[in-house]
Design brief:
The protein is an alpha+beta fold. The protein is built from 3 helices and 3 strands.
Amino acid sequence: MVSSSSTVPRRRLDAPLGRSPAEARQGKLSTLVGASTPLFERIRPLLDTIADTIQPIVPRGSGQKLVTNFVSLG
């Protein structure tokens, strides 16, 4: 059991995926990744298997991703 005062570091990542189901089957999704640079580099190999467009947004929570999402909808 892990207590709430555990010293295990918590890592947070936000990586919504976009594009169609057909592109998902081909590993051609797109994603904007909100994460620290070390975490992004750690998960990059996994993302490369499912997405062909990977855009890091650093620092996580900077708000740029939200603006980009809205712009891409227009």
